Amino acid sequence: MTSYSTNDRHRTRNRARARKCGAKGVFDGQDVERRIDQQEARCHYCGEELDFDGPNKWQVDHFIPLSRGGSNWASNIVVACAGCNRDKGDRFPWEYRPARFEEGCGRDG
Predict the structure, then answer these.
(1) How far apart are CA 74 and CA 68, in angstroms?
(2) What is the C-alpha separation between 60 and 84, in angstroms, rounded?
(3) Which residue in 12, 17, 69, 77 has the most C-beta neighbors within 10 A?
(4) What is the rounded distance in angstroms from the CA atom of residue 107 to the CA atom of residue 6?
(5) Residue of 101 and 48 predicted with greater confidence
(6) CA triplet 89, 90, 92: central angle to 5 degrees?
(7) 64-85 b/e with 16+ CB inside 10 Å = b?
(8) What is the pLDDT of residues 89-98, one digit of tens each?
């Protein structure tokens, strides 16, 4: 598994974006690894196995986008494939994939 280390450029970029948006909170590599485990190493949005080394490598996504009032706390992060994260952009998850959030869909389980 590729770690979300303290010197990772993505982590630095996420923190800078959070500060710019005035978002509260911080998460670390352990939070990300815990989330990967909770999601059973699958993309939160499409359910495909996460790519740890290839061109569609996994990314941390803010479930509620920072630009729309989301926090930078661990409770607001999910792990997604690069394609889903890029396609979701700054939309709310239920705007991006409405069927995933219908009643009884079991989002986290």
Answers:
(1) 17
(2) 11
(3) 77
(4) 29
(5) 48
(6) 110
(7) ebbeeebbbeeebbbbbbbbbb
(8) 999 999 999 9
Site of tokens 């999910």 = 78
- Longest CA pairwise span in the chain (Å): 40
- For the chain, helix (H) and strand (E) counts, in that order, are 4, 2
Alpha helices, H only, 1-109:
9-21, 29-38, 82-88, 93-96
* Alpha carbons 71 and 35: distance in angstroms, whole number: 16
pLDDT digits (tens, 9 = 90+) for 20-56: 888 899 999 999 999 999 999 999 999 999 999 888 8
Contact assessment for residue 10 and residue 59, using Cβ atoms and an 8 Å cutoff: yes
Query: Torsions phi, psi of 45, nearest 5?
Result: -95, -45
Six-digit token string for 31: 């939070």
Q: Please say if the pLDDT value at position 86 is more than 80.
A: yes
